[in-house]
C-alpha cells in the first residue's frame, strides 16, 4: 500500500508539472507597485517589486493607485495579453501614462468590471507606443473603460506628437477622453457602449492637436463621440483631416466640437472617404460657430476662417433599409426631428426592359 501511495503521489506531481504555469491567471494589485508585462518568444512574464519575470500568460490587474503605472511590452511577432479588472490608476499629477504599450508586437486588453485610467501632461490615458496592434475587448460583456488623457495626449492612442495607429475596440464600454496630440488611425469598434469625449483640441475618436483620424471602423455597439475644441467627433483633431471612416452598424452619435465636423475634419481640416452601410443608426452634428470660424459639417470638413465646413456625401451604396443617417443643426440637441434624414437609396430605382444609357449609382438614378 505504501508503494502504491508513493506512485500515486508521483503521478499527481507529474500531472501538475505538465500544466502551464499560467493555467490559472494570477491577480496583480497595482497598489503594490509598478507592473511590467513582457511577451517574448519564451512566453509572457510579469514583474512587480521583488517578483521578477513571473510566468503568467493571462495576468489580471486590479486595485487602485495614484503613483504606480502599467507597462505592457510585446516583442516582435508576439502578443501580450492582459485583463484590467476594476483597475483605477490616476497619475494625472505625475506626468506619466497610466498604462502604456511598447515593443513591436501586439497587445490585447480584456475588460472586466469598471476601469479608469487617467494620465498626466502629454500622455494618453491608455498610451499606445507598440508597433503592432492594440485590441480592447470585452468578451464577457461586463467591462468598461474610461481613459483620460492629459493635455497633449489622447484618451486612447498617441501622446503629445505621437501617432496612435492600429487600435481595435471590439467591445466594452469605452470612454476615451483626451487632451491634444497624436494621430488616430486604424481604429475599429465592433461592439459595446463607447462614449468618446475629448477635452481640448482632439477628436472624440481619431486625431489630436494637428492630428488626423483615418481608417476608423465602427461595426456595432453604442458609440457617442464628442469632439474637443476645434475638432471632429470622429476624425481629425484641431486642423486635422478625417478620412477612410466606415460605419457599418451600431448606434453612433458624432458631434463636432467648436468648428469641427461631426464626422470628418477639425477646423480647417478635410473630411473624405466616409462610408455608412449596413443597419447603422447614425446621428451627426457639426460644431457651432466660434470666433471668426464657421460651423463644421455634419459629415465633411471643419469650419475655416469665415466659412462653414463643406458637406461631403458619404458612400451609402451598402446602406440597408434599416439603416439611416440623421443630421442635426450645429449647436442643437440631438433629439427630436432631425434637419435631414438619409435612408436606403436603392428602393428609388425601378427598371424596365429598356437600354441603360447612364448606369445608376447608389446616389443617382440611371437613365
Structure description:
It is a single chain. The chain is mainly β. 5% of the residues lie in helices and 41% in strands. The chain contains one helix and 29 strands. The chain has a seven-stranded mixed sheet, with no helix packed on it. A six-stranded parallel β-barrel has the order 11-13-16-18-17-14. It starts with a helix and ends in a 24-residue tail after the last strand. The model is unreliable at 1-24 (pLDDT under 50).
Short account of what is shown:
The protein has 367 residues and is mainly β. It contains one helix and 29 strands. A hairpin with a 2-residue loop joins strand 3 (43-48) and strand 4 (51-55).
Q: Mind telling me the C-alpha Rg?
A: 24 Å
Distance between the termini: 93 Å
Number of strands: 29
Strand order of the largest sheet: 4-3-2-7-10-12-15
Query: Helix amount, in percent?
Result: under 10%
Mean pLDDT: 81
What's the oligomerization state? single chain
Number of helices: 1
Largest sheet: 7 strands, mixed
Shape: globular
Strand content: 35-45%
List unreliable stretches of 5+ residues.
1-24
Which structural class fits the helix and strand makeup? mainly beta
Helix-strand sequence? HEEEEEEEEEEEEEEEEEEEEEEEEEEEEE
